[in-house]
Request: fold
Amino acid sequence: MADRILTTHVGSLPRPAKLIEFIHQRTAGDKFDEAAFDQELKGAVTDVVRQQKDAGVDLINDGEFAHTMGWAYDYGSWWSYVVRRLSGVEIIKTGLWMTTLSAHTKTPMAPKDFVVGDWHDRRDMSKFQEAYMDPQSGCGLPEQFMTEHSPVVTGPIKYRGQEAIKRDIANLKVGLKAAGIEGGWMNSVAPASCARMPNEYYKSEEELLYACADAMHEEYKAIIDAGLTVQLDDPAIGENWDQQKKEPSVEGYRRYTKMCIDALNHSIKGLPSDKIRFHLCWGSWHGPHTTDIPMKHLVDLMLAVNAGFYSFEAANVRHEHEWKLWKTAKLPAGKKILPGVVSHSTNLIEDPELVADRIIRFAEAVGRDNVIASTDCGLGGRVHPQIAWAKLKTLSQGAALASKQLWH
Reply:
């Protein structure tokens, strides 16, 4: 057991320009040199592992470098990478952000009292339409894979990313060995977030959800079998609430979310919970987020995931006050929380004393041994690289300050 607060982050880290150029070429359908990309990727992962260690991060990943971030600012790479790893999914030249999902969806959603809406149905975007449509406001979505493309489910979903995940695991292990680090973790999209695609094949959303769960089990198992920890990224659990023209009932949303959690637990059945991290957020875009569902309606559902670690936003100004929930929330024995104590949502660099204060709040609520200091969401593609690395540095500095108070 550590005698201090350990540090980690949510996953995405700033990519080198050359790596972004490679992935943009592949996304755009240009001539692509797979061997040259693999070589560039391997070196980039080794470098980012070292950079994390230098910044004082304890629990380290590959920065999600193999995920398809073809632009310097990209909110979708945590999810869009999986499209290339699934059969039964076709890419169409219609932007997912600007088209209605229902136009490409033949099947009804379930349960009946909650329907997943279209991307442009977000209530926050409707309330602040002028800001979101202004490219200079900081709210507008940056160009990314989903600007001009949309995946559509046209056949049975099966996992076909075996070689890709094998490569990713090997690259991370090379980087960890070079840095003298034991262990590591990798991101993978959770079933509910994976299943947020227009569907022309499955009879119901639940059927699509479980198809994604069965397919993604292969990726989760491969990561764990390699001796690494898997993080299941599932923003859908929080941000589906905003994706309705009218605010749904809390009861209906919770029933729908329970179905998503059940499918997630199905996807990790038989896998050791102490090798699984679960990440919940409300999306990483830089908007007002006035229509985020409060954490109080999600915390028990999150803790129902059969994971050993729970990661969630707790540093941005929309959710920081929710740390008080942990005074009464019952954290299962042996589980740990990874609250965000620095945020991707602002260019301001948090003062180490503020970071320490945030950590101490959680430590006093659930016990110091049950807290690992993290970020709200991925930093890569959300803030400038110089700012991202400064945030990780202040994270480690704040954790050191908190440790002195909590252990000495």
About this structure: The CA atoms of residues 125 and 292 lie 12 Å apart.
